[in-house]
Amino acid sequence: MAIDTVPPLIAAQLNYLLSHSPFPIKVEQMWSGCKNPRLLDRFTLVIPFCLDYIKWDVIYNAVYPLAAPDIIFGPEDETFRPYNGYNEAGDSKSSKNCLADWNSKDPSRLLRLIIELRDAYTTYQKKRVGEVDDDRLKFELSTMLSREGIEMCTSSGIDKPEEVRFAVPLLEMDINKLVPGSTWKRLQKIYLQVMFPVGKKSPSAPRLKLVSPAELKALFSIDDFKLPSWLEGMCMAEYLPTLEEMLQAQIIDAVSSIEVRRKFIMVLVPLLGRPLEADPVFCRKATFLACSGVFTFLVHISIPLQFPKQKPALILQSSQHFISHGVPVKSSVLTDYPWSPRWEISEMAGRIFDFLVEECLNFKKYCNESMVLLR
Amino acid sequence: MDDFSIEKTQLSGATLASLLHRSSASTADLHGYLFGHVTLTIHNSLSDESTSSATGSSLTATITSFLSLPSHLPLPPPPSHTTTTTSSSSSLLGWFSARRKTVPRPSLKDSITTRTLSSSPSHLFTPKNSSLSLPPSLFLLLTTPIQDKLIHTHEYKAFQYRITDNTFEPKSLSIINVGPIFRSHYESFSPNAPFPLVNCDLRDSNAMVEDEKGESLGALKSGLKDQQQLDMCAEGFEIGRLSKLVGSEATHLTAELEELYHKMLAKIDGLSKLVEQSSAEVLEQENNIMKLRYKVAGLE
């Protein structure tokens, strides 16, 4: 039986979209809408919006792939009608949309269409939030709208009260540039998610949450950041500067602590030899090859973000003992060694070395035992 | 532009079946125009209190026919209203979109097309017994479920596009079938293609027949025209013989009628052979086109 295929013209557009999109888009499912069910021409795109996702179905036609695709928006966005009424205004510029002069040979078209529609969707949600009848919200809107890249939406379900969500991009600094040689592909931006309950007589404090891309965890964990408390009667314009100031200071700290970790790895070199492998950008991990007599083993050191307040975690891995399928024998995570954040880093390295000298004997015994168990 | 709400939407079972068949037989998605008529019914609330005087009127749209084409082709400019008024029974009510395996919600294209269609002033039509002016604002969406496991194979939804607030208003669609419930509908039915009105004189045998036979050119012409019209239904049946079916000469009625029906059947038979031949040619052509399409799409 033939394998499911996406017609080449459609595949080219989709692949371009997935690899060139400025925001991470995912394909949730793909299916076929033609008589030959092997030809996939419909798919659901999961597009990030306002720290959440919107799902749009893209409907191509496998038999006529030269035709422009059609889009079905989410069930809660029935009133979102882009490209409607532009012609009436007689504005020739705005009536020229991506669908009007579709060129199936140009792989960038689908991405352009999606970006154009997402922009239209942002404007649509902004308009909807503006129509919400809530005094505090109206005030917040007037003070926050000037922020670049702010996104907002209203949401209401059957079982939950209506609320307005904001995604506020924080800090103007470019975190990607702060870390030399970083491998991040996407822009690392921290957002504050603000959820305002609306329609209540006495306005209660909004729910606040920091959101960052998962890759940022290598440098800075937003979970470790304590949000300043929201005082009664406060507004976002008051709250944001304090928050940004604190966040900026902590990020600069986080960047400078890369150097501390790098130095720590360096001082381990005279004791354990050059590392087999080390994370050169964030200096969070290093692996050394060590031996005790004829017993050779690897030492994996992972250094926490709070180093030197927190001690590194060690894992030993034998180079000589393997359980089934060639999986090497490993120790559990070892942190049970003396530590003080007030020590010089050379002292810290020395203590780890002393610990390893003793611990490797235990580990060797453990390895031999697990081999015996295997027989 | 007036924006009236259509209360009821009706569709004959045969038309729906034909629509569903057309969409499931096609290689890909379809769209097309819906034709039919709108009637205005006035409810008189027969209450004694004259003060309320609630005279409500409601519009009922009945879809009787459609025109379909593959949806990658743009809809042709809709037939202008003036040409369809001659039969007065069918005007452009709206359009439909049939797409496989999609959620039954109007898509981006659907909303653009519907808006364009219902906002163009040249397609306003007037229901039979009223002076209202309505845009073709109906939209019928036919889909098949995305999951294969469901028990039903088709889904359809009818909407009326409200131009004032730019929304699709879901409308219930009632299917007209045979049965006593639909009796009233059939009683008000009038055929779209009546037997042509042919002029056959009722001649009295005793009157001054010879005098009236003054063969004027005009009479000859109209006779030829009538013969042509008759040939459309029954080829080779002479117009003169029609007169035998009426009047005093109608004693051999059965034989003449049978002859007429035979001619009609022969005509239909000939036509269906023609249709069969041309369908075979169309199919062959479609297959060729499909092969070329696959080549263009890079699927070979």
From TrEMBL, chain A:
GO biological process, one term: cell division
Keywords: Apoptosis, Cell cycle, Cell division, Chromatin regulator, Cytoplasm, DNA damage, DNA repair, Mitosis, Nucleus, Repeat, Ubl conjugation pathway
InterPro entries (alphabetical): BRE (IPR010358)
Localization: Cytoplasm; Nucleus
Transmembrane parts of this sequence: none
Recorded superkingdom: Eukaryota
GO cellular component term, pick one: nucleus
Family: Belongs to the BABAM2 family.
Protein name according to UniProt: BRISC and BRCA1-A complex member 2
Organism whose genome encodes this protein: Abeliophyllum distichum
TrEMBL record, chain B:
InterPro entries hit by this protein: FAM175, FAM175_plant
Pfam families documented for this protein: MPN_2A_DUB_like
Entry superkingdom: Eukaryota
Protein's UniProt name: Uncharacterized protein
